[in-house]
Amino acid sequence: MTGAVLSALRAQESSSGVTDTARLLVSCADRPGIVAGVSRFLVERGANIVQSDQYSTNPESGSFFLRVVFHLPGVSARLDELSEQFAVEVAQRFGSDFEFHDAARPKRVAIMVSRYDHCLLDLLWRTSRGELPMEIGAVVSNWGDLRDEVTRFGVPYHEIPVTRATKATSESAQLDVLGGGRYDLVILARYMQILSDDFLRRVGCPVINIHHSFLPAFAGAGPYERAKERGVKLIGATAHYATADLDEGPIIEQDVTRVSHRATTRDLVRAGADVERSVLQRAVRWHCEDRVLLHGNTTVVF
Amino acid sequence: MTGAVLSALRAQESSSGVTDTARLLVSCADRPGIVAGVSRFLVERGANIVQSDQYSTNPESGSFFLRVVFHLPGVSARLDELSEQFAVEVAQRFGSDFEFHDAARPKRVAIMVSRYDHCLLDLLWRTSRGELPMEIGAVVSNWGDLRDEVTRFGVPYHEIPVTRATKATSESAQLDVLGGGRYDLVILARYMQILSDDFLRRVGCPVINIHHSFLPAFAGAGPYERAKERGVKLIGATAHYATADLDEGPIIEQDVTRVSHRATTRDLVRAGADVERSVLQRAVRWHCEDRVLLHGNTTVVF
Amino acid sequence: MTGAVLSALRAQESSSGVTDTARLLVSCADRPGIVAGVSRFLVERGANIVQSDQYSTNPESGSFFLRVVFHLPGVSARLDELSEQFAVEVAQRFGSDFEFHDAARPKRVAIMVSRYDHCLLDLLWRTSRGELPMEIGAVVSNWGDLRDEVTRFGVPYHEIPVTRATKATSESAQLDVLGGGRYDLVILARYMQILSDDFLRRVGCPVINIHHSFLPAFAGAGPYERAKERGVKLIGATAHYATADLDEGPIIEQDVTRVSHRATTRDLVRAGADVERSVLQRAVRWHCEDRVLLHGNTTVVF
Amino acid sequence: MTGAVLSALRAQESSSGVTDTARLLVSCADRPGIVAGVSRFLVERGANIVQSDQYSTNPESGSFFLRVVFHLPGVSARLDELSEQFAVEVAQRFGSDFEFHDAARPKRVAIMVSRYDHCLLDLLWRTSRGELPMEIGAVVSNWGDLRDEVTRFGVPYHEIPVTRATKATSESAQLDVLGGGRYDLVILARYMQILSDDFLRRVGCPVINIHHSFLPAFAGAGPYERAKERGVKLIGATAHYATADLDEGPIIEQDVTRVSHRATTRDLVRAGADVERSVLQRAVRWHCEDRVLLHGNTTVVF
C-alpha cells in the first residue's frame, strides 16, 4: 500500500464517520414490535440507521438484544435528551434496558497489571497509534517494574503494593485511583492478584480479564508446566468480564495457537503471551465499540 | 452428550422453529427510514421479528442490505400475497430489491461433479442426515465413476460426457436436467469443465463453485505441484458464485490448512480436498439459509 | 489438477515408496553415540536412511526418541532377523526400547462406536479410498444403528449390547472380537461406554479415543449445553490414547473451530462433530505411520 | 504462573542450554551412509547429539537435508577446526554443503524499514526482552519518522532517502551500513522500495522480506482495496527470502486471519499488519535458530 493510501486511511480514521454518530444498545424479553418501535423512535428524530444487529434467543419466549448505530447531526449534545425520551416512549413499553453511547467519545480506560508487560505494551502501543477507540488514563500495578515503559507513553503509573495483610487497604487505594466514575472500563492486563467481590462492586465499571486457556483446562498453579506434562497441542487464551469468581465470567473472545512436543515450557509461556495479547486487544476493541452485550453468564458480540 | 439429549436435539431439528417462519432479504441504496419501513410492514401483519441483520456500506451514500427472519402463523401460504404488498408499500418507495423465502422449504439443489468425490460425498452425507436445509434432486457428471455412490443415496445420476467437440450439445443436455426453474441452486462440487456464459445465463439459478486457493495464487495447470515447488505453508479453498470468469466470482467463504515441507504433492492434494469439502459445505449452508446477499462482485454474509 | 496428474498420484500412492521400506522407533535415556550406533547398524546392512527424526528432552539427563525410515530391499522378510540383531548390538548397549515396522503392511484396525456415525463414516470412507494406511477388520457397537453403513464397506459389524449389569460379560464378548493379537489398533470413534482397566490391559494393542474439548473444559454431562451457557467462542476436540482414566491419556492431536453467540446448542454439536472427525483421522493417520511415540503421559509426534 | 516460575524460566533462558552447543546444517544429493558419517564424525569428537532432523525429498535420487544440534564443551572455540576437519572427512566424500553455527552467539541483524512501524517495533520489543536470539545493530530507513522509536531501544538509526534519481547512490550508502560482513541477516520490515539484484548480491547475507498475501493474490497497487472489492474472507502474510523478484523468493512462513464483509479497508489494513508482524517474527526466529535450509526455490524448516 502506498504512503498516500495510508495517509488517506489515517485521515479517514481520524474522522472515521464517527462524528454525529451514536450507538444504542437494547436488551429485554422478546416482544413483537420492538424493532419497529426502536427504529420508529430514531427515524422520527431524523436519525439514519447506519448499522443494526439483532439477536433473539428464541422466537417464543426468549431474550432480545439489539445494537443500532445511527447518524444524527449534533447527537453528541442530545444523548441525555434522547435517553429520557427513549425511556418514556420505548423502554417502559417493552421493559427493556438500554444505553446510548456517543461514537465520537473514546472510552476512558484504566489498566491493572503486575509484572508481565506483553498485554500492557500491546494496548499502550495500539492506543498511541489510534488503533483502539479509548484513552488510557492510568496504569495501576502492585509492582514498580513497568513504570518507565508506561510513563514513556505519557500515562500515569500508580504503584500500589499488595500483600495478604494489606489487601483491603490496597484495594481502597486502588479504588481511589480507579473508582468514582472516572473510567468506563478497567482492563486486567495480567494482573496476578485476586480482586474481592467488594472491589468489583465498587469500581463501578466493567472489568475485562485475560486468562490463559488450555484443552483441557489446568486449574491452579503451574498450568504451563502441567500442559507440557500432558503434551497439549494447543495453547489458548480467554478474555472475559471479571466476576466474583475471577476466571469464570462471561467470555468475550478466545483463541489458540499450535505447539508441538518440541516446545519447551518456556516456548509455551511465550506462545501463550502472544495469544493473550492478541485475544485481549480484540475483546477490548469490541467492548470499546459497544459491540458486547451481557446475557446471563454469556455474551452477545455484534 | 447423552443419547437422550441427542434425540431431543434431533427432534428440535426436525421442527427447528422454522415452521411458520420466513426470511426477507432487502437490498437498495441507503435511505433514511428503510428499517422502520420494513419492520412496520411486518409488525402490522402480526409478524414477530426473530432475527434482523443489517449492513450499510457507509452512512452517506452507500448500499444497504437487510436480512430479517420473522415468525408469522401460516406464512408459507401467504408469501405471494406478502410479496405483492411489500412491492407496493415498501420496495417502490425505497427502490429496493427484495426476496421472501419460506424457512420451512428446503432448497432444491442439483450438483455437478467430474471424478473427485470428496465434496460430493460430504454434501450427500450431510444432506441425508438433515444437516443441510436442502434436497438434492440430481447429480450431473461428465463421467460415470460416481454413479453407485450417488444412487445409493437415492439421488438420480445423469452422465453427460463433455468433449470440446460436443460442448454445446452437452450443455443443452445439462440444461434439460438443471434448467426450467427446477432448482434453486446448482453446486459445482469439483466440476472440471468450464461452463459457458450462455449456460450460466440459462440455468436460471445461482451456481456455487469450490476452488483451491493458495498464497500466492498459482493460476493454470498443476497448482499443487507449483505450490510444492514454491514451498507454500498454507493450502486453501475458496467457495464463490460462478460467473463468466469461472474463478473470479463473489467470494462466499474461504479457509486454509497448514502444511510443512515434509508434505508430498499427494499430501497437499489430500489436504486441499479436506479444506475444499469443509469450505463448500459452509458456503452451501449459508446460501440455503438465505444468509448471502450479493453486493457487486463481493458478498454480504449474515 | 488434471485427471492425468491424479492418476499419476494415485499410482505413486499405491506403491508410494513404501515397499522395501521399514520404520524403526527407538526410545531410551539419552546417551552419547546412540544416533551413530543406530545409523551404523542400518548402514552396515545396506539400508539407506530416508528420513530420521530425533527428539531429546534435554542435553544432560533426558529421554531420547528416534524415528528412522529406511529403504532396504527385501526388508519385509528380514524384520525378525533385524530385531534380534538390533537387540544384541544396539538396544542392550543403550538400554533402549525399539520397534521395527514394515511400511508396506497396513495396520490392522478395529473400531468401537455407539450411535454417532460422523467419526466412523469418515474413517471408513478415507480407508476405502486408500487415504489411511490401515485395514478395518471389524466394527464393534453396543447398538445396531450403524450396521448397514458399515457392512456396505464390506466390514463385519458386531453388535454387543452393554448394560451396567452385563458390562463384564459384554467386555469379554468384545475381547473375543478385538483381542488375541488380531489388531494393531483399536479406535474409539465416539464409543460412549467407559472401558475397564482390565479391558484396556487385555485388548493388547493401543486404543485411541476422540473427545470433545472446550476452553475451559466442562467435565461431566451436557458439555455442549454448558459451553453454550458460558458463551464459549471455540469448540474443540482431543484425540488421545485411552488409559484407565478414559479422558486423561497422552494427547496425540487437538484442534478447534470458531462459533458465535448465534450458534444454537445443536450448531455447537455439529461443529464439534466436524472437528472431532478431522482430529481423529489425523491422529489415526500419524499412529498408523508410526509417527507417535509415548513419553510418560505425553507424546512425541514426528 | 508465579513470578518465581517466571524468574526460573528467565534464568533457564539466559543460559538455556545453548552454551557449549553448536548446530550443523548439511545439504547434498541423497547418498547412503551420510547420516552415519555425520554422526560418527561428531561422536568421535565427544559431541552429544541433542537434536537431529533430517529430510530427504525421495529415497532414490533426491536431495538430502540435515540439521544436528550437538553439545560439546568448548565448541565455540573449535568451530573453525571442526569445519576444516568436516570438509575433509565428510563433505568431500558426500559432496555436501555444510555450515557450523555457535548456538551461544546471537545473530547480528540489521533492519530496513520505511514508515510502517508495526513489524519493526515488534522485532525491537521481542529482541529487547530476550525473546529472539539476535542483536539488532542498525535500522536503515528511507524516512526519518521512526528515529525516536528506534533510538529509544539503543539501536542506531540511519536515514538514507531514496528517490528514483538517487537509487544507485542510496544503495551504496545502504551497503556502507549493511555490507562488509557486518551482519548475518537483513530484515525488510515493510521496506517499500525495490532492492536491485546488485544490492542483494553485495549485501552478503540472507534477506528476509514480509509481504501481505491474499487468496487469491492481488498483484500491484492497492491490494487491500481490491481485496475489499472482491470480498475476501482471509487476510494473510508471507515471510520469504528476498530474491531478484522481490515477492517470489522461497517461503519461510505464512499465516492468515479472518475478516468479514463488515471490515472496512482500514480494518483489513490493520488485520494485515497484525498477521504480518506475527509471521515475520516467527520466520526471523526460525532463521536465527538455524532451522531454515534452502532447497531450490523452497525451504526446509526444521
From TrEMBL, chains A, B, C, D:
Entry keyword set: Hydrolase, One-carbon metabolism, Purine biosynthesis
Catalyzed reactions: (6R)-10-formyltetrahydrofolate + H2O = (6S)-5,6,7,8-tetrahydrofolate + formate + H(+)
Pathway: Purine metabolism; IMP biosynthesis via de novo pathway; formate from 10-formyl-5,6,7,8-tetrahydrofolate: step 1/1
Residue span, ACT domain: 23-96
Domain of life of the source: Bacteria
The enzyme's E.C. designation: 3.5.1.10
Active-site residues, as the UniProt record annotates them: 247
GO biological process, one term: one-carbon metabolic process
Transferase found in the keyword field: no
GO MF terms held by the record: formyltetrahydrofolate deformylase activity
Function: Catalyzes the hydrolysis of 10-formyltetrahydrofolate (formyl-FH4) to formate and tetrahydrofolate (FH4).
Family according to the record: Belongs to the PurU family.
Protein name: Formyltetrahydrofolate deformylase
Originating organism: Amycolatopsis pithecellobii
Gene this chain is encoded by: purU
